[in-house]
Amino acid sequence: DLQICQHRAPTCCTRKMEESYQAAVRRERTQSIQALNFELKYMIVGHITAFQEAFESLLRFAENRTSSLFETAYRPMAKEAAEPVKELFTDISLYILGAETTVESAVLRFFDSLFPLVYSRLINPGITDLSEDYTECLRLTRQDINPFGHYSKNMVTELSKSLWASRMLSQALSLGIEVINTTEHAALTKECSKALVKMQYCPHCQGLTLIRPCVGYCLNVMRGCLASVSELDAQWREYISTLEYLTNEMAASHDVEIALTGIWNSINEAILHAQLNGPQLSATVDKVCGQPKQQEGNLSSDNIVPVKEATADTQTFVMAHASLNNRRREFINYMKRSRTFYASIAERLCDGDLVMRDSSTCWNGEDVV
C-alpha cells in the first residue's frame, strides 16, 4: 500500500514510515533554508542595530549641543526651553523609525513652542503675566508673523533632505527581514514533499541508506519545490539596488550627521533674527494679542549674546560618524554579493552532503545509476 516509494523488489517500508518521511523532509527543508538565510539575516539585523545605535548616539550629541546653546547663550529661557528641545529630538527619532509624522511638523511645532519663550524672556523680559491664553496667542501668531525669518524653513528643508534616506533605509531593512522570515516558512506542496521523500528516503526502503541523489536529479526536484521562492529573484535584485541607492544618498551631500549637528546653529540664527527684529515683532504682537502686564522699568537690555560653537564632546561625534560610514560600506558590499540569493537557492540546497559528487553511483529517483 505504499504511495511514494513503490518498487518491484521487496521493501522494508510501510505507509506509516512514508508519512514520517514526509514530516521529516518538511522539517529538513525548513532547517536547510534557515541555515542558508542565517548569515544574510544576521547581517541585516546587525546593520539595523548598528545603524540605530550610531543614529541614537548622533541624536544625543546634537540634543546636548542644542541644550548647551540655551544654557550658555540664552540662560533666561534655558530651563523652559528644555522640554521643546527634548520633544524635537524625540520627534526626529520617531520619524527615522517610520512613525506617521513629518520633519516639517516636528520643526514647526518646536518653533511654535519657542516663540513665546523668546518673546517673553529675550525680546520683552519685563513681562510678568504669561497666561495660557496669551502664550497660545503667541504660538498661533508665530505662523503669521514669521519671527524666525527663513531660518525655520531652511531647517525643515535641510533635515527633510538628509533624514528622508535614513527613514527609507530603516524601513527597507525591516522589509528585508520580513521577506527572509516569510520564505523560511513557505509551505511545501504535497507534490513537493512526495518528490523530496522519493529523492531522499525511498532508497532507504531498499536498504540503500548510504546512496545519495544524483546532482541533476536534486536540482530538478529543488527547483520545482522552490519555484515560488525563486520567483523573488527579480524583486530581490531590485531591493539590493534600492539599498545601495539609499546608502549612497545618506553618504552624499545631504549628510544626516552634518544636518543633525547643525540644528543648534539654525536655532541660534533663528533666535538672533527674532531679537534683531524685536520692536517690529512687539508692535505686531500687541495688535494681535494685546499688551501683557509688565514690571516697572522695562528690563529690556541688550540680550543678544554672540555664541560660539557650544562646547561638546566632538570626539563622540567623529567616532559615531566614522562608525556609521564604515558600517554602511561593509553592509552594502555584503548585500551586493547576495544579489543572486533567491536565484541560486536550489543550487545551494543541493550542494554539500545532500548529493553524491565524487562517486560514480547515485540515486535517480527510480534506481541506483
From TrEMBL:
Pfam family, one: Glypican
A GO cellular component entry from the record: side of membrane
Cellular compartment(s): Cell membrane
GO biological process, one term: regulation of protein localization to membrane
Membrane topology: Lipid-anchor; GPI-anchor
Protein function: Cell surface proteoglycan.
Protein name (database record): Glypican-5
